[in-house]
Amino acid sequence: MDLAVQTFALTKRFKDFVAVDRIDLEIKSEVFGMLGPNGAGKTTLVRMLTTVLQPTEGTATVAGADIRREPGKVRERIGVVAQAMTLDVELTAWENLDIYGKYYGVPRTLRHERIKELLRWVGLAERARDPVGGFSGGMKRRLEIVRSLVHQPQILFLDEPTTGLDPQARAAVWDHLVAIHKDQGITLVITTHYMDEAEGLCDRLAIVDHGKIVALGTPSELKRKVSGGDIVEAELSTIPEAALNALEKADFVLEVKKRDNSLTILVKNGAEAVPRIVQLVDANRGKIKAITLRELTLDDVFLHFTGRSLGE
Amino acid sequence: MKAALAVWERDVRKFARQPAVMMAAIIGPFLSLILLGYAFGGAITYAPVAVVRESNGPFSSQFIDIMRIQLSCEYGGVNCKNSYQLTDVSDLDSARAMLRKGLVKAIVYIPLGFDQALTNHANTKVTINVYLDNTDPISAAAITGEITQAGQQLSAQIQINSPTTNSIVNVILADFYRNVFYIEFMAPGSLVQSIMFASIIGGGISILEDKERGIIEGYLVSPLKQYEIIIGVLFAGVTKAMFSAGTLFVLSLMIGAIRPNAGIVGYVLMFLTLFLTSLGIISMMTAYAVRATSRNAYTFTAFPINITLYFTSGAVYPTNGFPTWMQQIAAVNPEAYAVDALRLLMYKGAGLTPVLGDFAFLTGFTVIMIGLATVAFKRAL
Known about the structure:
The complex is a heterodimer.
Chain A (H helix, E strand, L loop, with lengths): L4 E10 L2 E7 L2 E2 L3 E5 L6 H8 L7 E6 L2 E2 L4 H7 E4 L11 H11 L4 H14 L15 H11 L7 E5 L7 H18 L2 E6 L2 H7 L2 E6 L2 E6 L1 H7 L4 E7 L4 H9 L3 E7 L2 E6 L2 H14 L4 E8 L2 H9 L6
Parallel strand pairs in A: 4-9, 4-10, 7-8, 8-9
Antiparallel strand pairs in A: 1-2, 1-3, 1-5, 5-6, 10-11, 12-14, 12-15, 13-14
Helix pairs in contact in A: 3-4, 5-6, 9-10
Chain B lengths: L1 H16 L1 H23 L5 E7 L4 H12 L2 E3 L3 E4 L2 E6 L2 H9 L5 E5 L3 H7 L4 E8 L4 H25 L6 E8 L6 H31 L2 H6 L5 H30 L8 H28 L3 H17 L12 H8 L2 H14 L4 H29 L1
Helix pairs in contact in B: 2-11, 3-6, 7-9, 7-10, 7-11, 7-13, 9-10, 10-13, 10-14, 13-14
């Protein structure tokens, strides 16, 4: 099986700023997610893969074509769904898809067949002749996704595909995305900073920070990489320095992050740790208002690898 | 009240931070004022007039001398200049051809026997014929006034020199074309302005919108070639501009604001003029819009550009009436050439030859602007 995407020391510099730093990455036929805070370099990476930006160094093959030498071929073989809505609201659903298909030179008969099929598939067949302006956010999103499929790409790049949608519409979009991969064998490359999106949708994830891939694997692999397993969150009225020091030194604690008056503590075994944390804090004249134990989430993984939470 | 002050402050601060908006608020009205003011206030100067002299003698020479010293003055007596510039032409037919091509605004015809009649008879009436290019009613009116006065002066001088004579020199005016109303004079400029409006709104703004919405970036990830995008965008703009100019043309025909004196060739050439103008102006505004930093910056600067091009085009007042600096703008203003070509084609029934100069300029302008639009687009793509 050929790789969908393979990068070779792919680098992009803007003057002194290194946006993407010698990334080597392989993406198979899968749903691949790229996670990272704003400015981490994931957008620049995708813009190079979709031939919008020229790499400073290194190169990549996308759908079997080199992004430097054969950008035209790459463009014919990929679909891109931008984060912002780029449908023409004055035009009908059909017209939006039809004109897009013409950009790609899809022959008329095939194009019309394909559009009918795609509209039916996302439940918009009855609205084909309606101007897109009257559609709901979820409908527009689904239409935009199938628009990028009119020319039958091998790889689909999506940027934050469910931003701004209500939970129901998001679920519907996810279902369609999963089906696109499963039924049509199209590789999906999704950039996102929604954890649930990454966890629920992606086969593999790359966490991108400061232009590098800091972690790569399936969601469960990534969680396992953060050794230990449980998270204790404690809210205190005040946090004395001594208490913090004591916790950081304790052998059952792996990592402590402090924010305002709350502590996020990564521990080996949650059930054992809770009473010992309470004890340690008490001994150092701290006062715990609330303490909770939960399982590790991708948010914690992200925090572990980047030192930042995704929302920041 | 403090809150109201804060609201006031926010608005005023925002206004001060947006130079484009401020410029538009000041420059727009200022441009209208000076361009309109100078356009309408100016006396017609140095309008080319052909003199066909079939009679040689002291009286006709005297008449021409009087014509030469006739001055028209601006604002009650300052800045006095000849309103016309005389050119000798050997025969009436050549002069008529020049008038048809728009090379002269009038022909002064001194017929054979003019001097002889005045010399031989003490009491006689002689005539000087003036043929006027009345498709430019403003220049025609200025020329008429001064030549009529010259005739009266000649009569008076003849009678002073020899008090026994009672000869009269009549200046007979003849409109070369059918009567052309001012609204018809203005109509070609309005057609060109509708092209400009369509280019600002339908061309530039839609490109800026596409740029802001990421549609242009969307083109980049598709197999569309750069030249395909540029051609598509420019000709969509031309279609919009031609649609507005075409609609205005038909409306003007319906209300009699345009009553063309043209055959099929004339109409084809009018279409070509409008097409070239549309392509040139659309390309210019596209180049500008693609480089503009924001929609506001574009809109508010397009407004004064529009005013300047329109009022210096000779659309509302003949360019002979302009001060020199405005004539210099007119000389490089594509709208001026478009208006000139349209007037020749609409009211003088001109064929290709008289408008070749206008076409050459418009073609050159269009080629340069397509080049600029291409460069601007390539940078944006």
